[in-house]
Write a structure and sequence with these properties.
The radius of gyration is 37 Å and the shape is flat. By secondary structure, the chain is mainly beta. The longest helix is centred in the C-terminal third of the chain and has 4 residues, at 935-938. Strand 104 (986-993) and strand 105 (996-997) form a beta hairpin. The strands form seven sheets. It has a 45-stranded parallel beta sheet.
């Protein structure tokens, strides 16, 4: 006999051939009992337990456990958590399984059973004997692997996985999101309620989705698939299949993508359906709604009827001549496919072919893709999309707001017709210069292309020196590519991209976007609020930019920060901003913002610019802003940055920098991005509410206003000790600050001792044995590695544990203080506010006093309170929350939680639980405690109460949101739409008071917020 307790580590524990008592520790353990009658206990985390032979007693404890009793009459108590219990046919007899709290699953593998199986998933609340041998309670989900005979398997209320195996099986999912696989044989699958996945596999199967948005796949054989209610996705597979979508917007595929065709029958039913017959001779009926039917020339002689509604026929690999008839007239394609009642078309020629297409559609919203060839494409009154592809094409788009694309090849004729039309002309392969202009309503390109009645143009030119002029177009997008291009916008908001070369770009009216790169460029942005972005990769070519009227932004080398190019920018009128990136430079640069300012050694002249953003390089730079909001990045070197007026942002970079914010609410950072610069920076906030960040060796004078100083010493090994004040504070021998009203501190790797001030401060301890005091105000304190002491003091403070290693002491002090856990761990939170000696997991070694609010982790937490009034939030997973004495607020969060308010007037808070696992309250007292429901999360109107139905077996009434309470077991359900089909009822909570379930409930027991 062996007695083997686990440790705090992840253990693998083996028993012996005799009776063993084996228990896990705090981590996730694997425990094997072997032969004889063993006692296995899982512990606090998710464990794996296997009893093997013998009559074993297995307790999972908390956590998501995986339990297999093995051969013998086993007693299994899965405990709290979302547990999985596994058993095969030879392991069932005499077993007793209690899933406990949480969403628990039972996996029964019965493939070797010698007779047909009949299985009905039981209600989890009462013990049931299944398959003549195993007793089950508190199990919500079942995974059943059937026999080789004709099985009848029925799921329950939750998400079941049912597999029929061989034989002619009948599988029914019931309520929930179920997965059904018929296996071989002629099977009948019924999804029931919920979003189900049904697969018939081999055989002549019958599949019915039921309520919900289901997916059905018939597999091999001549199958029948019925989507019924919901937006379903049905695939027939190989064989001659019959598919019926039913209600909803369905997708039906006879054998679409399958290597073997079949003669399928598809009926979309009501709704806007998508139907593909695939290979074979298919019969397709759209039914009611606006349907979309797809065919491929050569796949078979299909018969298609769009039915009622505005239906679209997609034809792939279409070639030659096609003329749409009136929708009520039958039409025939080249492969013998006939169709009727189609109002719109999506036509695609064979990819890579050069046949001449002559297509004419009707007045629907049509789509045509002609690819190669000299095509004639004509549409009617709808809003059409026509891609003529490569070749010399003729496009007549008719009335409507059409989009037309003409590929390379040239000499296209495009007649856009009435409406607001957009024409895109692709000429990227052009090696000679293109010229585009508009006269009246006709646009012409010098390659012979003409466009009439278009309002918007996009033209992609090639490597020549192009001249593209917008004229009377409402808007244009011109792409010049290589060459010395001249692009001229018009009266709209245009997009001009000159590409490489020496370009001349004119924006005109509107809010234009202008890009250029390389060469000596001339830009006139014109009126409007424009964006000009010029990137020069090499050389010293001169670029001239006139922004004109409006509030404009010009960017110079914003991507790479190179020193190439020379720039003269005139902002014109308006409030203009220049963004100049010379961060790769090595020379000493200087700049003072003025009506005629020069970035010395940066080759940039700025005239009539009101605000600047400047990045300099490794030199010793001096930058001075103006009256508005400026941005300076000094880079490496000993820089001087002055913001003057406005809300400025000054970043020093590496080096001994001097930053002066001046007036306004400024942001000053000594290094910006690196903690390893220990050179002596000097920061002066000036007037306004400023933010100043310093490192080792720096000095900050916050100035007047309500200022905040950030002290980041994360790269320092020697600890510091200081108390915050509004005067001069000495952090260490070389680091000081003065004039600040609040503090953010990021500690050293040594032992720090820091006391904050009267406002809302942030103290983070890093490694080392730190002592952090928040002082007055609502402060945030983090421990870090080491043995730390955190004192919130006065105010509503937040204390955060970020490292589970160490012996820490947290004292919230006066006010309503919060404890949070922010760390990546395989363990969960075990916290007892009344006795810290019981703490474990993420709270191991933590002593807590003066805390009223606790947030758990995303694992299975155990949080217990005191006699004070407390708020506990469990977070994800299956938690146990105990309020103790006092008026407590408990919110379990996601998954199935065990809640115990204790004495006092308690509130239990619920958000809609989409998984439907439900919580359990073990001490709910009517007239004293309240169920708090979030209206928004539950989809309940801002005023008034939802429906409330009570009874032994309450039934939803109407289609509004409603709660249903079962008087014989204390279960409370919620249904968002009552008798509607879009939502299933979800189990919210099971109410008990001691060993007795709550037998009555009223709307007055709720508090809707």
């Amino acid at each position: 006999m062996a007695t083997n307790p686990g440790t705090d580590q992840q253990d693998v524990i083996f028993g012996t051939d005799t009776t063993d008592t084996l228990s896990g520790g705090f981590s996730s353990d694997r425990i094997f009992g072997y032969s004889d009658n063993d006692v296995l206990s899982g512990g606090f985390q998710g464990d794996g337990l296997n009893g093997d032979n013998g009559n074993d007693s297995i307790s999972g404890g908390s956590g998501a456990d995986t339990i297999q009793g093995g051969i013998g009459a086993d007693t299994i108590d899965a405990g709290t958590g979302d547990d999985l219990v596994i058993a095969s046919r030879t392991e069932l007899d005499g077993d007793v399984v209690d899933g406990g709290l949480g969403f628990d699953s039972l996996w029964l593998s019965l493939w070797d059973h010698t007779t047909a199986l009949t299985f009905v998933a039981p209600d989890p609340i009462a013990q049931s004997t299944l398959l003549g041998g195993i007793k089950v309670t508190n199990v919500e989900q079942f995974t059943i692997v059937g026999t080789s005979f004709g099985d009848t398997i029925t799921g329950g209320r939750w998400n079941d996985v049912l597999s029929g195996g061989d034989g002619n099986d009948t599988l029914s999912g019931g309520i929930g999101r179920d997965s059904l696989n018929g296996g071989t044989g002629d099977d009948t699958l019924n999804g029931g309620n919920g979003i189900d996945v049904l697969s018939g596999d081999a055989g002549a199967d019958t599949i019915r989705g039921g309520y919900g948005n289901d997916s059905g796949d018939g597999g091999d054989g001549n199958d029948e698939l019925y989507g019924e209610a919901g937006n379903d996705n049905l695939t027939g597979g190989n064989g001659d299949d019959a598919l019926s979508g039913g209600d909803g917007d369905d997708v039906l595929s006879g054998d679409y993508g399958s290597p073997q065709g079949g003669s399928d029958t598809l009926d979309g039913g009501s709704g806007d359906d998508i139907l593909y017959g695939g290979a074979g001779t298919d019969s397709v009926t759209g039914g009611d709604g606006n349907d979309y039917v797809g065919v491929t020339i050569g796949n078979g002689e299909d018969t298609i009827n769009g039915g009622a509604g505005i239906d679209t026929l997609e034809v792939r690999k279409l070639s030659g001549t096609f003329t749409a008839k009136a929708s009520n007239l039958s039409n025939t394609l080249s492969d013998g496919t006939t169709f009727i009642n189609m109002e719109a078309y999506s036509l695609t020629s064979g990819f890579g072919t050069s046949t001449v297409e002559n297509w004419t559609t009707g007045d629907g919203n049509d789509t045509m893709y002609a690819f190669d060839g000299n095509d004639i494409l004509s549409s009617g009154k709808g809003n059409d999309y026509i891609d003529a592809g490569v070749g010399v094409d003729i496009v007549n788009s008719g009335d409507g707001n059409d989009r037309i694309v003409a590929g390379n090849g040239g000499k296209d004729t495009i007649r856009a017709g009435a409406g607001t039309d957009t024409v895109t002309i692709e000429r990227r392969d052009a090696a000679t210069a293109l010229t585009f202009s508009i006269t009246g309503v006709t646009g012409t390109i010098n390659d012979g292309t003409t466009v009439s009645d278009a309002e918007h143009y996009s033209i992609y030119a090639g490597s020549g020196s192009d001249t593209l002029t917008a004229g009377a177009a409402l808007s244009v997008k011109f792409y010049g590519a290589n060459g010395n291009d001249r692009l001229t916008g018009g009266k709209g908001s245009d997009w001009l991209d000159g590409g490489a070369g020496n370009d001349t770009l004119t924006g005109g009216d509107g809010n234009d976007t202008i890009y250029d790169e390389g060469g000596a460029n001339t830009v006139d942005a014109g009126t409007g609020n424009d964006l000009v972005d010029i990137e020069i990769g090499s050389g010293t070519a001169a670029n001239s930019v006139l922004l004109g009227t409006g509030n404009d932004l010009v960017k110079i080398n914003s991507v790479d920060g190179l020193t190439a190019g020379k720039f003269t920018v005139d902002g014109g009128t308006g409030t203009d901003t220049a963004s100049v990136n010379r961060s790769m430079g090595t020379a000493n640069m200087s700049f003072v913002l003025s009506p005629n300012a020069v970035l010395t050694n940066g080759d940039v002249t700025l005239r009539n610019i009101e605000a600047v953003q400047i990045w300099t390089g490794s030199g010793t730079d001096s930058l001075t802003g103006g009256a508005l909001n400026d941005l300076f990045h000094g880079g490496a070197g000993n820089d001087t940055l002055k913001g003057l007026a406005g809300n400025d942002r000054l970043y020093g970079g590496v080096g001994a920098d001097r930053l002066e914010g001046g007036d306004g609410n400024d942001t000053l950072q000594a290094t910006h991005g690196t903690r390893f610069d220990t050179q002596a920076d000097r920061l002066y906030g000036g007037a306004g509410n400023d933010s100043l960040r310093i490192n080792q060796g720096d000095y900050a004078d916050a100035g007047t206003g309500t200022d905040r100083v950030y002290v980041d010493l994360a790269n320092q090994a020697t600890g510091v000790s200081f108390a915050f004040s509004n005067g001069t504070v000495t952090v260490n021998a070389t680091t000081k600050f003065a004039g600040a009203e609040s503090l953010e501190f990021y500690g050293t790797s040594g032992n720090d001792s820091v006391t904050a001030g009267a406002l809302n401060d942030v103290l983070k301890g890093n490694s080392g044995n730190d002592t952090l005091r928040g002082g007055a105000g609502d402060d945030l304190l983090e421990d870090g590695a080491g043995n730390d002491k955190l004192y919130g003091d006065a105010g509503n403070d937040t204390l955060i544990r970020t490292n589970e290693i160490g012996t820490d002491s947290f004292d919230g002090g006066a006010g309503t203080d919060t404890l949070k856990f922010s760390l990546s761990s395989t363990m969960s939170v075990k916290l007892d506010l009344a006795n810290s000696a019981n703490n474990g997991g993420m709270a191991k070694g933590l002593t807590v006093t003066g805390v009223e609010v606790v947030y758990g982790s995303d694992r299975d937490d155990d949080i217990r309170g005191t006699s004070a009034n407390e708020k506990f939030f469990g977070g994800g997973a299956d938690d146990f929350l105990f309020g103790g004495a006092g008026d407590d607020v408990l919110e379990g969060g996601a998954a199935g939680d065990l809640l115990q308010g204790g004495t006092g007037t308690n509130q239990f808070v619920f958000h809609s639980d989409g998984f439907g696992t439900g919580d359990q309250i073990v001490d709910f007292t009517r007239g004293q405690d309240k169920l708090v429901v979030d209206r928004s999360d539950f989809g309940i109107a801002a005023s008034g109460n939802p429906g409330f139905i009570i009874g032994a077996n309450p039934t939803a009434s109407g289609t509004g949101p409603q709660f249903l309470f079962e008087t014989d077991n204390g279960r409370l359900w919620y249904d968002r739409d009552g008798t509607g089909n879009n939502y299933d009822a979800e189990l919210i909570v099971t109410l008990a008071n001691g060993s007795t379930h709550v037998s009555t409930l009223a709307i007055s027991d709720f508090l809707f917020v």
